[in-house]
Design brief:
By secondary structure, the protein is α/β, with parallel strands linked by helices. The protein contains 20 helices and 8 strands. Bound molecules: guanosine-5'-diphosphate (GDP).
Length: 448
Amino acid sequence: MFESLSDRLGGVFDRLRGRGALTEADVRAAMREVRVALLEADVALPVARQFVDAATEKAIGQNVLRSVTPGQQVVKIVNDALVELLGGSAGEEEAQLHLAVTPPAVVMMVGLQGSGKTTTTAKIARRLKTRENKKVLMASLDVNRPAAQEQLATLGTQVDVATLPIVAGQQPVEIARRALQSAKLQGYDVLMLDTAGRLHVDQALMDEMKAVADVATPQEILLVVDSLTGQDAVNVATNFSEQVPLTGVVLTRMDGDARGGAALSMRAVTGKPIKFAGTGEKMDALEAFHPGRVAGRILGMGDVVSLVERAAEAVQQEDAERMASRLAKGQFDMDDLRAQLGQMRRMGGLGALAGMIPGMKKAQAAMNSGAIDERILLRMDAMITSMTQKERAKPELINAKRKIRIAKGSGTTVQDVNKLLKMHQEMANAMKRIKKMGGLKGMMAMLG
Ligand code: GDP
């Protein structure tokens, strides 16, 4: 899996990592190579472009952490961007099947012929049985392909999972009804429906799937696609997701896919999480798809990533300690505000302490909702930079004349400066209130 991409990226980072300093040109050159590596891995062009643009901006805008090299930080940035591309931290949770309903939960498998749908149905059934101790019933609704139902029955015997007895001549919707009925009566936890495939996406197939979904009301509709078909797999997924409410994708034949383009583009193009990867013909060759782990496998630089994480945590710790001592005194000047804004930018979130300050929380919410983006944070930073040291320590000194100077110096407007001052004022007030409540300890006690 991903061998060729791994090799390419490995080469790019080896050249970067040892270096003590990186210029913007170095970063841009490295990111260009990352882009080529992604395209060679058959990642969709717009996806590769967006990936590299976002990572480049982050890498150039970052503050270098103590105790790691800039190259190491770039590795971490690319790692994080990969995790995001593969589904993000939400993807970890999404990799699970959501089967929490009054049993039987229904999992409907859809996909083109030959994608590995029947094999994957049996693999998932086996996994649910052995790992989660679920009682699973499988039913094949494929009445087109001769012996499709027998194939599932054979696999069922192999993995020791029950299959619905075959009744000749029944149509897919009838079979789905009968399967649901049996599953209910016989106390099955999960019913897996293996639907018919086609050679191409066609309307008859889509209509049949919709009719089955109406009857079976599945909790999960999983699309099975062959990763070896690269961008075609992504196109198939796009087609299917326009017609049926897919809850996830299973990528088969990842064992033979050295490039990985389908896996890398799938989430960005279709918005659907990859839930499992098929990694062989054997019934146990199925892996839950964890974006973090897959990114780690692609880069093979887990040590660097955790080193940078630890360094970032250390900085956060220092910031937190400084904040704690300021809080105790009820102080909050422009430098404190800048430290917090910087942290928001670096970490994409607030430290535990700043999270308690109402104004900061609001700012964070605005940032998460997209109302404040990184550029606004950078502008605030520029305004604070344009203040004198005295002004930063005592913002009340900032009169109309000084506001004009600060706005000019930072390429902003007096209105922007006013907004910043107001935000700071609100936070400083909150700090004073916290002090009155007996400092942080008092506040913690109040919060229980
Ligand atoms: P369906 O027509 O979509 O139901 O496809 P099948 O389940 O019959 O699978 C077609 C072929 O692909 C079979 O020979 C499977 O053993 C094989 N296959 C399925 N998944 C994988 C996988 O993850 N890796 C490999 N190497 N082969 C697979």
